[in-house]
Fold this sequence. Notes:
Blueprint: H1 2-38, E1 46-53, E2 56-61, E3 66-71, E4 77-81
Antiparallel strand pairs: 1-2, 2-3, 3-4
Amino acid sequence: MGKRLNSRVLAVGLAAIVSGPSLAADELSKDLSSTIALLGLPCGKVVSSQRMKDNDYIATCSDKNRYRVFVNPEGRVVATKQ
C-alpha cells in the first residue's frame, strides 16, 4: 500500500510541475487579451505571446493582429501594432 501511495503522489506532483508553465502561459494570454481590449484595440483572444524583456511582450491575436505590449518610460501600458 505504501508504494502505491508514493507512486500516486509522485504522479500528481509530476503532473503539477509539467502543467505549471502552461497554466502560467494561459494566465498571461488572458492578461494580454484584457489589456489589449481595454486599450480599445481589436484582438479577440491572444493565442501566443513572446516575452521580449520585463514588461514587454509581442502578442499574436486570434484575428491575426500582432501587438507589442509594454510599459513606456512614463509608466503607462501601451500596445503598438506590429
